[in-house]
Amino acid sequence: MDVLESFSYTTKKSAFYSRINVIFKSRIKMALSYKSSYFMTIFLNLVTLVMYFFFSKLNPDLTIFGISSTYVEFCFLGLSLQMIIGTTLSTVSASIYNEIISGTWSSLLVNFSFFEYSIGSTLAGVTLSSISVFIALFLAFLFMGSFYVISLQEVLIIIMLFVLILLSHMVVSMVFASFTIFYQKNSGLIPLLYQLSKTFTGVVFPIALLKGFPMFLSRVLPLTYGLEALQSIALNDTSNWRLIFTNSAILIGITLILGVLSYFLVVKSIKNSKLKNKVDWY
Amino acid sequence: MVLISTKRTKGVIEQFNHTEVSLSFLSGFKATFARNIRIIWQYKFTLLIGFVNTFTVASLFYYVANLVPNLLISQDNYVVSSIPFIFAGSMLVDISTRILMKSMNSFTSEMRQGTFETLATQPFGLKKYFISEITFEVLYSLIFSIIYYIPVLFIFPIFTGISVNVYSALSFLLIIVFVLLFFFSLSLLAANITILVKRGREISMVLIGVIHLLSGSLFPLSLFPEWLRIIAYFSPMTLAVQAFRLCLFGGGTIGDFHVWLSLIVLIVSSLIILLLFNFTYKKIYNRIRMKGTIHEF
Questions:
Q1: What is the DSSP-derived secondary structure letter of residue B250?
Q2: ipTM for the complex?
Q3: How far A63 CA sits from the closest chain B CA (Å)?
Q4: Which DSSP string do the residues of chain A spell out, in sequence order?
Q5: A&B contacts, CB < 8 Å
Q6: In whole angstroms, what is the distance from residue B234 CA to residue B265 CA?
């Protein structure tokens, strides 16, 4: 009922941000109605952090090529980002699929634009997953020690990079969502893409270890660029500004190219659904 | 459920209705298998995705192990390089936990798509369906894990130079068989709880995370503090991974303490879980029927 009410609320408002806000609130409410799932996610995040903490004890002097911090600091940064990116990657595509299955898709088409829906649902997913990651990180640091020391200027750049990373992954999810709208089924490729990002982007080991095709693969995935820039700021004594600017420009490029592509594909897919009268069909 | 055509759907329903005539376990079992194979066949592409996924997961273990390439790990009277040590442990946990993940995904999908209610009311019986479905997932996961891991082991020749004698190989196979039995029973119980609390995917992910951590797949258990090591041994997979590595790297056989203890723990825990499933099954089923939540997700 809450969700329905918040959806009909949009008809009274026309501002772009308030429509996104409606989606955001409804997604948060929906997610929080599964509290047990949320607590399980926090616990799982904590278990993952603890596992790599003990792995780091295999060699306490373990150093990462080109990074002056400890392994724990290196992998905790990567794991936290990976957990949030997992949500960003799956949100739009999975939400659209759920709307199609549960029959609310046609109502959405009437009330919202695809971009409003994408931004609202991604923001909700990222907010909730960020909170769960921060809780897990706080608990992990509480028991294991070690803190990041970063300046205010670095915090601002980290936030900017974080937004760029989120946007580049949101547009990837939007491209997959267009497939979901067109075929009325899930491509099943998002979990694979998530697994690839988890492995080949330098989350728990540096990409310097990769050679040949895996190295090429890592350079295709947007998280590699985001993580490389973040590590340069948060983990190194001196930041490599050239690398940060280059990687930010690549993330902006990915966002723009895939954003335009997803828009084009979604418009085509929705047109196809309407033309074939498949909007309410599953 | 994705409706491909009415004819196919009818075929699936007929398969289940067939059990009304015979009511034998075997017929329903065959119908479940036939239905699942048809579903998999409709999503042939996922078979390829499965291979890429296995390769990616194996790459993760491989590269993580390569962070400590020159480290020798000493455990249970054998010494081995950290790379095969980590890879072997992680591979066993990955293959076995895949059974749990697939079973839970299958039940979650049925409930989400609304087909679970139909399955629950079939004359074949929900309990038999549970057993058939999870047996299928165990076999499917095992067969495809073997198919996927063969090329992966050619790409990452981790185990070259390891000599395993006949007795070690047999003990190694026995451990795998009982690990499968353990995950079969664990999946049954988890599926039973899933129909009550409806959060199958999350339950399996948490279980898999905890099993991974406690089994010491990425490191020897000696790195754990004493209290956590005691907790770790409550997970049957901890001993199983230890025995698996012993057979592979230390020539361990069924005569070795860790190997036979691991087999006994796996058998006893599987039996306890099966009894628990049998004991809770009717209560949970009656409860969801009384509350009318069988169709909810």
A1: S
A2: 0.82
A3: 9
A4: -HHHHHHHHGGG---HHHHHHHHHHHHHHHHHTTHHHHHHHHHHHHHHHHHHHHHHTTSTT-EETTEEEEHHHHHHHHHHHHHHHHHHHHHHHHHHHHHHHHT-HHHHHHH--HHHHHHHHHHHHHHHHHHHHHHHHHHHHHHH-------HHHHHHHHHHHHHHHHHHHHHHHHHHHHHHHHSS--S-HHHHHHHHHHHSSSSS-GGG--SHHHHHHHHSHHHHHHHHHHHHHTSSS--HHHHHHHHHHHHHHHHHHHHHHHHHHHHHHHHHHHTT-TT--
A5: 91
A6: 10
Which residues of B are less than 8 Å from A51 in CB distance? Answer: 209, 212-213, 218
What is the 8-class DSSP label of residue B223? Answer: G
In angstroms, the separation between the Cα of residue B232 and the nearest Cα of chain A is 12
Answer whether A249 touches B (CB < 8 Å): no
DSSP string across B68-105:
STT-EEEETTEEEEHHHHHHHHHHHHHHHHHHHHHHHH
* Helix, strand, or coil (residue B267): helix
Task: Determine whether the interchain pair B56/A195 forms a contact, defined as Cβ–Cβ distance below 8 Å.
Answer: yes
Nearest to A54 among B202, B205, B219 (CB): B219
Q: Is A88 exposed, middle or buried (0-12, 13-18, 19+ CB in 10 A)?
A: buried
pLDDT tens string, chain B, 297 residues long: the values are 444 455 555 655 555 554 445 457 788 888 888 888 888 888 778 888 889 999 999 999 999 988 888 888 888 888 888 899 999 999 999 998 888 888 888 887 787 777 777 777 777 777 888 888 899 999 999 999 999 999 999 998 888 767 788 899 999 899 999 999 999 999 999 888 887 777 777 788 888 889 989 998 888 888 899 999 999 999 999 999 999 999 999 888 998 999 999 999 999 999 999 999 988 888 887 787 777 766 665
Does A249 map to a domain? yes
Whether residue A24 is contained in a domain is answered as yes
Domain ranges for chain B: 22-291
A153 CA: distance to closest CA in chain B (Å): 32
Residue B99 CB coordination number (10 Å): 25
Contacts of B82 in chain A (CB under 8 A): 58
Q: List chain A residues with CB under 8 Å of B52.
A: 192, 196
Q: Are A129 and A86 in contact (CB under 8 A)?
A: yes
Q: Which domain holds residue A171?
A: 2-275
All residues at 6 or more sequence positions from A32 whose CB lies less than 8 Å from its CB, including other chains: A38, A128
- A177 falls within a domain: yes
Cβ pair B205:A185 closer than 8 A: no
Does the beta-carbon distance from B218 to A54 stay under 8 Å? Answer: yes
Q: How many domains does chain A have?
A: 1
